[in-house]
Design a protein that fits this description.
Kringle_sf; kringle; Hepatocyte Growth Factor; mainly beta; 5-stranded antiparallel beta sheet; globular
Length: 131
């Protein structure tokens, strides 16, 4: 990347406007803090800075300038979506994309079958093929 230019931390997130996630499962974690920009929220989520969980998404309240870091995303069981005009939802692309980039070493998505419907081999298995 060019000298002096910083990568925008929001590039790692998929934005859905006017949406908030509500946890039905009480074991899922959320942490909130006042922050001025979505970029600051994204940076903290990406680094898991000050969080006791792996941040998979955050919701930014545009009215109160409050960031809500989430240990879950829209694909997590025990979560429901809620239309809310004050919020924008930002989900880490690694956790919501359904395609493999490169060799798939960092893939955290939900696809577990091939295009033809065959169950994928588990990462920790050497059967039927070696990695």
């Amino acid at each position: 990347e060019a000298k002096g230019k910083r990568r925008n931390p929001l590039h790692d997130f998929k934005k859905t406007g006017e949406l908030m996630l509500i946890k039905v499962n009480k074991t899922l974690e959320v942490k909130t803090k006042l922050l001025n920009t979505t970029e600051q929220c994204a940076k903290r989520c990406s680094r898991n800075k000050g969080l006791s969980f792996t941040c998979k998404a955050f919701a930014y309240d545009r009215v109160t300038k409050r960031c809500h870091w989430l240990s879950f995303n829209s694909l997590t069981n025990g979560v429901r979506k809620k239309q809310d005009h004050a919020f924008d939802l930002y989900e880490k692309k690694d956790y919501v994309r359904n395609c493999i980039i490169g060799k798939g070493a960092d893939y955290k998505g939900t696809i577990s079958v091939t295009k033809s419907g065959i169950q994928c081999q588990a990462w920790n298995s050497m059967i039927p093929h070696e990695h």
